[in-house]
Design brief:
elongated; 105 residues; three-stranded mixed β-sheet; 7 strands; alpha+beta; single chain
Length: 105
Amino acid sequence: MKFTKLSLAAAGIALVSLFSFRSLFNGTVKGTVSPPDAAVRAWIVSATDTLKVPIDKGTFTIQDVKPGVYKVIIEAKPPYKNAAKDGITVADGQPSDVGEIKLSQ
């Protein structure tokens, strides 16, 4: 009886530990926007996930992104137009750099 309780407790701790480190395997998406003061937010969109972050001084980093293929959308301030970049692949634990996204007026 005592052994069974100890085994269940150990299994529970192992299960909780496994899920607590789950985010270590997700990736990041980063990039820059030109001109630096022309954008508000960066979005990444897939069939099952959407994340957004504010753009600070022309740069953005979106963390804890699940592996998959995404579209990056830059939400611009007027008079600039929104911009998008398709086919951004995020792999387990790897950063994905989308490079510089230039906004047009």
